[in-house]
Hints:
Elements: E1 24-26, E2 29-31, E3 43-45, E4 52-54, E5 57-59, E6 66-68, E7 77-79, E8 82-84, E9 96-98, E10 120-123, E11 126-128, E12 137-139, E13 144-149, E14 152-154, E15 158-160, E16 167-172, E17 175-179, E18 181-183, E19 200-202, E20 205-208, E21 212-213, E22 223-225, E23 228-231, E24 237-238, E25 241-242, H1 243-248, E26 256-259, H2 263-266, H3 273-286
Parallel strand pairs: 1-4, 2-5, 3-6, 4-7, 5-8, 6-9, 7-10, 8-11, 9-12, 10-13, 11-14, 13-16, 14-17, 15-18, 16-19, 17-20, 19-22, 20-23, 21-24, 23-26
Antiparallel strand pairs: 24-25
Amino acid sequence: MQALPKGVKMGPDGRGGDQPRGTRVVGNLAREIGLWQKQSSLWFQAVAAETTLKGNVFFNGPRAAVNFNDGFGGGDELVNNLLVNTCRESSDHGPWNSWDRVPYITTERTGKPSITPKLRQIHHNFIIGNYNAQEAMDTDDGSAYLHTHHNVMVYGDNGLKSDFGGHDHVWESNLLAYVGNCYGSGFASFSWGWPGYNDGFRNNTCVFRTSYESTCNTHPTFDVSGNRVFSERGTLTVCGMSFADWQTQGHDVHSTLGAWPADAALRHEVGLAAITRLISIYRARAI
């Protein structure tokens, strides 16, 4: 294999410390992105690690508000942000979009060289997947080592997505309001069920727009359990059978099914004081 010319800083080895680490993006208002540069995002990150995106209001863009190009060293945190009105000129993604197609060698996870990045945390955000959002969070093409918890995500066709080798992505204690599916369907090469892929969808509240779940999770290594599921009439067809029959086969353990709750009841699901504050900021600044 031919070596890179001396002085060229590229390739999979990220141990030299030349990449951005510890960047903080806090308390910003960003809007009307994409007027001149199409397909742009409000925040794009590549070959960087341990970024904090906190307390930002991002809205009105042509594509995703936040785009993570790769996993690199991981350790990033997205918390207390409001993302809305994205994907206005494109689809096949959502307010958040990520890929993880190339392994990098870093020391972020344990202090020793490894291609396994540090866990990335996405929590306590309010994400509205309106316009052409496929998901509120599109974790595409191998995205891995993500913990998505205590978020409010409204609309979008799907919840959790893990495809093309994606793995180690766990959703816990999120509120998904008026989605097509609690977790993704209709994509090629979904990863669920492969040994060691370690995806999970646990203790979430998921409100369906319809009474039909098109995703059939029959894989024991994809943990779907303890969720509160709601549909318009309190019925749900999963893989051609009723939800009750689906559970008798050992799926969706400790999950419950009911009719659409009142909006007031949903507001108490995940402690929405901070979310209400973010909405107030958005409304005040959008004028």
